[in-house]
Amino acid sequence: ALDEFEMKNSLDTDMVIVYVSGHGTMTHETVQKGKEKKAVYRPYIVTSDTVTGRIEDSAIALDKITNWFDK
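Above: the chain's sequence. Below: its structure in token form.
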């Protein structure tokens, strides 16, 4: 939904407040950094339709939300 949301008629001085009431979880992911692999823990917000075992595909990555608001 955040990808489709546009802040039409908004000003730079406007403030957006997002309140999330729920649960979160962390995933353990391995990323390639040059020749070495590194373990990364990534926080997610768990939604009512989050699927256990498919967190990356069905929950909301916290960094996706923070990156969206940094636009």
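The mean pLDDT is 83.
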